[in-house]
């Protein structure tokens, strides 16, 4: 995760980055269950979805709305939303009776790249692009910069 530009000092980015770490850890536990037999993959898939789905909702209903409205990053946001749909589509529709684990592993690879793009591309760019009044609107309740 990014630690060099200071974007985590913005409360929403800090929250989303912490969630990225939690999601990445859950994804790696799922990967280990699938590839090495370390744990129950179905239970670990559910664990991953439980952190991934709310996280995506926060991104899309908050930061992404503001970035689209600003305009200069709308295309990048659309691409990231498409990746959300793709990854959720695979992970959320796994047949628990006959899971296709290779498709899940491929989605986990895409998820890793997606998080990396947000951490090292979108988040630092958003901090530069969005004005402070926007960040004030985006600040989670109870947090201040």
Please describe what this structure looks like.
By secondary structure, this protein is mainly alpha-helical. The protein has one domain (9-138): nmb1532 protein domain like (Four Helix Bundle (Hemerythrin (Met), subunit A), Up-down Bundle). Helix content is 77%, strand content 0%. It is built from 5 helices and no strands. It is elongated and about 50 Å long. The chain starts with 10 loop residues before the first helix and ends in a 7-residue tail after the last helix. The mean pLDDT is 92.
Largest sheet: number of strands, sense, barrel closure: none
Mean of residue pLDDT?
92
**SS-derived structural category:** mainly alpha
Terminus-to-terminus distance:
20 Å
Radius of gyration: 16 Å
Any idea what the CATH superfamily is called? Answer: nmb1532 protein domain like
**What is the number of beta strands?**
0
Query: What share of the residues does DSSP label as strand, in percent?
Result: under 5%
Spans of at least 5 consecutive residues whose pLDDT stays below 50 are: none
**Helix segment tally:** 5
Question: How are helices and strands ordered from N to C?
Answer: HHHHH
In CATH, the architecture is: Up-down Bundle
Report the helical percentage: over 70%
Shape: elongated
The name of the CATH topology is: Four Helix Bundle (Hemerythrin (Met), subunit A)
The top-level CATH class is: Mainly Alpha
Count of discrete domains: 1
